[in-house]
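Let us practice reading a record.
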Amino acid sequence: MRPAPAQGLVDDAELLRFSTAGSVDDGKSTLIGRLLYDTKTVFEDQLAHVTDVSTRRGDERVNLALLTDGLRAEREQGITIDVAYRYFATPRRKFIIADTPGHVQYTRNMVTGASTASLTIILVDARHGLVEQSRRHAVIAALLRIPHLVVAVNKMDLVGWDEAAFRRIETEVRAFAAGLDGPELTVIPISALTGANVVAASVEMPWYVGPALLAHLEAVDIASDANRVDARFPVQWVVRPQSAATAHHDYRGYAGQVAGGVLRPGDPIVVLPSGVTSTIAKIEQGGEAIAEAYAPMSVTLHLADAVDVGRGDMVCRPDNQPTVGQELDAMLCWLADKPLAAKGRYALKHTTRWTRAVIGEVSYRLDVNTGGRDAAAGALGKNDVGRVRLRTSTPILYDAYRQNRTTGSFILVDEATNATVAAGMLLQGPA
């Protein structure tokens, strides 16, 4: 087994979730394979298997893309179909990667893979520059409010490490990104095949003075990405004594994951939708009392008063409350084969709360290649993204997605098949 980074160095490191995207053959899987290989996160038997497959296929060198293209169909076609999740760590940070597909027919896979990411890497072939699929991925990254975007100009070895070729693409990328209400942008020249500027700085490109890709991933500031202002705590479970021996103990806690803001003992709170007020008496994590809790920590709250709190309720500050409503405007990414049409009825899951929803109208379909709008669409097909109006049977407690990605998102479920048919992002105000 290849040596792994010392565990003691990464136990307290931050976790960065990032996704990769790009056009077909831009090298997404090769890049991830390179990161796994160069950070010594590949087991010897995995490497031996990939080496054997590469030899039988006639590849000139070990095909690191095979470390992530796990499905047989992916290996046969040389493309990524499903979302592949991988983990690696360095002394500075832990990482979870979502390798997402580039094909237009797998847009839904890209959306689901990137939905929890704090950073997205879009690969661009140095020979071809920004293509339609690259633009589509950038538009989706902006729509998903991913805070950080890296455009990795790959295959610099195939253009002779030419600075002029990179600068042309960098200028084109920055001009296109300027038209998006999107994330912080970084453009880095790399060669995933040779490893140049991926983990270590490239000697072939002395004209590039920025960080290598891994150095940027380790240093990018993600602590400020989370909403630390608007306290939101959707209640997942009411914790009570579980045995007869402890049943006499006066213990009642409310477990869940902090969705925003910072919670501390002594803070005044209000429980929605009931509107009852109390004060946080104690916060526990893993059975131990802690001084504060913030997203995305999973904790148990104890309140000073015996109030009625249940699953689906939300704890927040009395002077800072989410919107309560049933008439909702949202951007939907449609995931199902059967198209969405007006008057469709679905189950809606928002944070820890379930309700039912009826689609009122499809306002427009978004052209994910350009960001344009088709107001005459009237429906959404598989992989389409569009704005819809819907009404829920009971009010939900939400923020705009751009304000809070947790309380501003939801899924729609077909109750007949129990299949998730859409991922939604809630809006407030005019488009």
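A brief commentary: Confidence is low (pLDDT under 50) at residues 1-11, 71-81.
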